[in-house]
Amino acid sequence: MMMARKQDVRIPTYNISVVGLSGTEKEKGQCGIGKSCLCNRFVRPSADEFHLDHTSVLSTSDFGGRVVNNDHFLYWGEVSRSLEDCVECKMHVVEQTEFIDDQTFQPHRSTALQPYIKRAAATKLASAEKLMYFCTDQLGLEQDFEQKQMPDGKLLIDGFLLGIDVSRGMNRNFDDQLKFVSNLYNQLAKTKKPIVVVLTKCDEGVERYIRDAHTFALSKKNLQVVETSARSNVNVDLAFSTLVQLIDKSRGKTKIIPYFEALKQQSQQIATAKDKYEWLVSRIVKNHNENWLSVSRKMQASPEYQDYVYLEGTQKAKKLFLQHIHRLKHEHIERRRKLYLAALPLAFEALIPNLDEIDHLSCIKAKKLLETKPEFLKWFVVLEETPWDATSHIDNIENERIPFDLMDTVPAEQLYEAHLEKLRNERKRAEMRRAFKENLETSPFITPGKPWEEARSFIMNEDFYQWLEESVYLDIYGKHQKQIIDKAKEEFQELLLEYSELFYELELDAKPSKEKMGVIQDVLGEEQRFKALQKLQAERDALILKHIHFVYHPTKETCPSCPACVDAKIEHLISSRFIRPSDRNQKNSLSDPNIDRINLVILGKDGLARELANEIRALCTNDDKYVIDGKMYELSLRPIEGNVRLPVNSFQTPTFQPHGCLCLYNSKESLSYVVESIEKSRESTLGRRDNHLVHLPLTLILVNKRGDTSGETLHSLIQQGQQIASKLQCVFLDPASAGIGYGRNINEKQISQVLKGLLDSKRNLNLVSSTASIKDLADVDLRIVMCLMCGDPFSADDILFPVLQSQTCKSSHCGSNNSVLLELPIGLHKKRIELSLLSYHSSFSIRKSRLVHGYIVFYSAKRKASLAMLRAFLCEVQDIIPIQLVALTDGAIDVLDNDLSREQLTEGEEIAQEIDGKFTSIPCSQPQHKLEIFHPFFKDVVDKKNIIEATHMYDNAAEACSTTEEVFNSPRAGSPLCNSNLQDSEEDIEPTSYSLFREDTSLPSLSKDHSKLSMELEGNDGLSFIMSNFESKLNNKVPPPVKPKPPVHFEITKGDLSYLDQGHRDGQRKSVSSSTWLPPDGFDPSDYAEPMDAVVKPRNEEENIYSVPHDSTQGKIITIRNINKAQSNGSGNGSDSEMDTSSLERGRKVSIVSKPVLYRTRCSRLGRFASYRTSFTVGSDDELGPIRKKEEDQASQGYKGDSAVIPYETDEDPRRRNILRSLRRNTKKPKPKPRPSITKATWESNYFGVPLTTVVTPEKPIPVFIERCIEYIEATGLSTEGIYRVSGNKSEMESLQRQFDQDHNLDLAEKDFTVNTVAGAMKSFFSELPDPLVPYNMQIDLVEAHKINDREQKLHALKEVLKRFPKENHEVFKYVISHLNKVSHNNKVNLMTSENLSICFWPTLMRPDFSTMDALTATRTYQTIIELFIQQCPFFFHNRPISEPPGATPSSPSALASTVPFLTSTPVTSQPSPPQSPPPTPQSPMQPLLPSQLQAEHTL
């Protein structure tokens, strides 16, 4: 912008005259020197206004027009410019020329007849009404152009531009031009006006001419020279501005820029403008069909467009646009061409996929073949005009078909040849793949699991390498490996089933010991199906463990034939047989006849439970019936207000199975009681078979607290209750609910809602016991079990069709989904038979626990596993129970042709003969057999019914008399299922308590109005359980081998069983069943004295004694003494006890009634693996450690030979001798070996399983692994529910230890291990130490210190013992206990109190020797010691004062001193010692609890 100036200062105006060579063609040549172009570019610089053609040959009329106005000069107009010093000025430009007459070709005559040299030097010009000149086209058409007159009709010239054409002009001599210019200059110089020499047409300039021009200028007193090019617009403005500065002396001197430098700048400016314009065009124009008119309008306002048009003109802009359009069209065509060429191979594959059809055809012939194909027009389009890229087809986007004329192009021919080659190669590769597969299938070197690297040399040849890529043959090999591995696994699974007897004889539990796993591998090792998985040992071991899990925990889900398990099929068959479509809405009620009974637990302390029970009873009828939706239900309430671990407060009893629980609270204390009780109740059944308490429906209720119905306390209790309910996933009710008034806990509407929910849950969870009630048993005469093998090659539908389609077949009323009722004539009377249709694995669970009158066992004659499972099942069936064997065959032809079928049929017949059973075979090609074939079997069942029921009743009595908790009761040999009561590992929930009362003892439920035994068992709550030989009971964890004894005969008269016979005759006899059968381990009826002589002889009503076999006592009888005295201790759970032993030598006469034995003892084909039954420790390596071979040998010395007779009572009893030996053992205890692990047998660790001193240093007293684990747990896992109780994944624990063994800097957070995995690995570290963290010698002192009665003195004594720990052990023990103390502080979240933590950790930290009685009896002491360390951690390790003990409950340490196994006031005055410190005289822990007169007899 111009700077501000005074108002009277005007913009300076300069008049410039452009002169140069002019005249006729003879003088100037064929073209001028460029004066007009120079003026045009300066006055109108826009490219569109610049004209190259300015003729000087005019007609007379044009010469006389107003533009020329009869003058030989042109007025170009006025121009405003800003000079370099930013001062604006105006310039009037005049061109002096000479116009030639187009007729005479001589100069036109004008008013001034002077020669050009004189005329050009004129400084005063005048021409009235002369118009501004634009171009030649203006002449004669002045009205079409802007008409602007020369100002005032006259101009005073201020300076001259002297033009010199330096190009090679046609018919012009440069020297002559220079001579003319010299003369002209001399004439101009006379005017004293500034002169600037302008070299024109420098874009075509001749270097010599330019040099001569400069020489001329130098010769004229440094005349200024500007090199210009009007066509290229170079230095035009510079020439005029240079002259202006010469005219106005006050202006600075202009810098003259050489032509080429100025040209470079101009070219750069044009290039930049061009780039911007092209960008603008590419942005706006996307379609090749756009036109210039519409696009130019869109671009008109864009500066990029304006700049380029200004510099280069509209035509060049249009040309660039057209180039862009052409490029877009070309790109579009190429895209279409690529799409068509890409689709062409697909068209070939669709139309001519057969190599045989085109193998020898050229592209032209193939083109003709394509036209004949039915789908030709689907892929191709035939155009009328060609080629396709020159037609409108290119814009037909919707039509994706290929133009057929494209086939004539070279790319299409190449694609056709490629298609041919592809088909030929595919044929060859397919041949190679088939050959490769055949090689794999026929090669004997390809075995399951063999790596490709080992198999490559046996399989590959040059053709395979040439035609098959590595990924292809690796994929084929991988698929083949998967096939043979899957087949090998199926065959191995069948092998495991064929050895079913072995697995059931080994009594496997959830964690089989290393010895048992070794036996399995030894027995199966020579089998080819075992060897087939030699290279897949881990998967083979996993299959074995999976099969063990099936044996131990058989369900439909774990069945190897899942989902085709027989149980699932039978349930479907029975449900479809007895449930009609119209009755499906009543399915739940039909499946559960006991749905009209609701058993409800009411939990609440301080009288809350009793109050609510009374309120609910007030709403019931007189006979405790409750009406829901118009239906009557029997309501049984069980209010609980004490410790739920006591039997009197247990959620369930033998006669009470809870369906739901109402949890009441009105304070924080009562809420805590509810939470702890629920947790204890769930823990008590976790891991057991009857663990439905974990899913027991709960309802949490906040009841009114007298005098406090509102305020912050109520709000706080509601919030806490809601949180607990969310955690327990149960319903929450609070006093704000409508209808609850003062003095009432819950209204009738809410009671009905709760009971409705329990009914639904009861139906869904099917909580009814699988064993029929006494009422149900009265409705059936016989209970028969029909066993089928899962996976047999026969349909269960065909086998069971005669049963289910029988007219007498009805739905069972026992609540089972797999049983039916039959009414068949047997003998002279019809009998109601309950027929349970089960798989073998389901039958194992009821073999000992239910009353079964007979078994019908099916097996497939052509499947070894089927007969093997039958043998395993029959091994543990008592020989008094009738057996019907049924062999399923494919028909007579199959039996003749199949050696296996003949062998299995023969073996089945022999088994039936040896066990006095029935045998029949049924051809499954004609499966419609009739039930009459089982008539002899049913008759045999009826004949043996009485003795079967009597034996079952006595077995149940023996079960009810078990006097120790199941922690040390080995499961009955009948079924591995019963092992669920064992503690499988250190993580078990329940503490190893040795109370002589069982909390969930299953008593036989007998009717009151029948046998005297039944009346006494049910009518009296106080049963005194008296036992002898307690040491044998505790040591039965490692039972010595037991050989069968000769049968013992008793004389039983008809009158002795008269009450049983009479009940049968009257049709009112009630059978006995036990729904929670927990048989002890190693039971064999042949091991014990016959109990009948003690049971069936009646005594007076005040005292009846029944003797039943004690499970672990050789030749002894446990006596049940029924005492009709009311107990006054307030618990309702205790009884007076006295010792009474009974044996065969106490004056009872034996007679000729044989005692029941197992079928294994009668049949040589059963029990072929019986030698393994007593060879191993019951439980897992993690639980007991390896068996000591020396003790094994000593324990079995007196039992060699099959015919050895074991005396019933002798001082040399091997069991007693083993106990005494263990008590007298040397106090120097050998170091226990690290417990073996199947999974860790394949790697050796330098960190785990080594002495503690090797992994710690004085600078780092804590093992790095323990430090990392605890840091990780405290950072992420303190709120994890069940931390240290819930086991981690063993494979992940092993992986964690492996990785740490390789890298001690392992980051547990990065590896994303679960908290339970890290916790389990940490415990495993201590388990694998050669010596326990708490040394054995310190354990002795700890136990002695724990005997101190005064609590404070006891804690100080324990602290003194702690100070004597080895330094390494002390530091690590302190670190671990401090961590456990921190964990226990979060018990509200993680539910792990110090008691629970001590239960989980004491076996790991102390590792007692469970093979000795004194260690077994001291376990509760060990747990209490660890609990004290955790509770009093600040006192023991951080010199803090002793903290107050928690509330004294029966499970707390402070209460344990006064809690004894019997509910008696006699205190326990001494604790058993640890393994290394046996008392001088062996003393049973029962002795302080027994009357003094019986102690002497007990110790004999």
What would you note in describing this structure?
- This protein is of the alpha/beta class and 1500 residues long.
- Helices cover 41% and strands 11% of the residues.
- It has 57 helices and 29 strands.
- It has a 7-stranded mixed β-sheet with strand order 20-21-22-19-23-24-25, with helices on both faces. Strands 3-4-1-8-9-10 form a 6-stranded mixed β-sheet, sandwiched between helices.
- β21 (819-826) and β22 (829-839) form a beta hairpin.
- The radius of gyration is 56 Å and the shape is elongated.
- Mean pLDDT is 74; it is low at 1-8, 580-595, 736-743, 766-777, 960-1153, 1177-1242 and 1448-1500.
Short structural description:
The chain is of the alpha/beta class and 1500 residues long. It is built from 57 helices and 29 strands.
Quote the beta fraction: 5-15%
- Please bin the fraction of helical residues: 40-55%
* Category from helices, strands and their pairing: alpha/beta
Terminal CA distance reads 130 Å
User: How many DSSP helices?
Assistant: 57
Largest sheet: 7 strands, mixed
Shape: elongated
- Mean pLDDT over the full residue set: 74
Low-confidence stretches: 1-8, 580-595, 736-743, 766-777, 960-1153, 1177-1242, 1448-1500
Q: What's the β-strand tally? A: 29
- Biggest sheet: strand arrangement: 20-21-22-19-23-24-25
Rg on CA atoms, Å: 56 Å
List keywords for this structure.
seven-stranded mixed sheet, 41% helix, 1500 residues, six-stranded mixed sheet, disordered C terminus
Break the fold down into its secondary structure elements and pairings.
Layout: E1 13-20, H1 25-28, H2 35-43, E2 57-58, H3 60-64, E3 73-82, E4 88-96, E5 100-101, H4 116-120, E6 124-126, E7 154-156, E8 159-165, H5 174-189, E9 195-200, H6 207-219, E10 224-227, H7 236-247, H8 259-284, H9 292-299, H10 303-312, H11 314-351, H12 355-358, H13 363-371, H14 376-379, E11 380-381, E12 402-403, H15 410-442, H16 452-459, H17 462-467, H18 470-498, H19 500-505, H20 514-524, H21 528-531, H22 537-552, H23 566-578, H24 587-591, E13 597-603, H25 608-619, E14 625-628, E15 631-640, E16 660-665, H26 668-685, E17 698-702, H27 712-728, E18 731-733, H28 748-765, H29 774-777, E19 782-788, H30 796-804, E20 810-811, E21 819-826, E22 829-839, H31 840-843, E23 854-860, H32 864-875, E24 883-889, H33 892-897, H34 899-914, E25 918-923, H35 935-943, H36 945-960, H37 1012-1019, E26 1023-1026, H38 1030-1034, H39 1058-1065, H40 1092-1095, E27 1103-1109, E28 1117-1123, E29 1141-1142, H41 1181-1184, H42 1189-1195, H43 1214-1223, H44 1264-1276, H45 1290-1302, H46 1308-1311, H47 1315-1327, H48 1336-1346, H49 1351-1363, H50 1367-1384, H51 1387-1390, ...
Parallel strand pairs: 1-4, 1-8, 2-5, 8-9, 9-10, 11-12, 13-15, 13-16, 16-17, 17-18, 19-22, 19-23, 23-24, 24-25
Antiparallel strand pairs: 3-4, 6-7, 14-15, 20-21, 21-22, 26-28, 27-28, 28-29
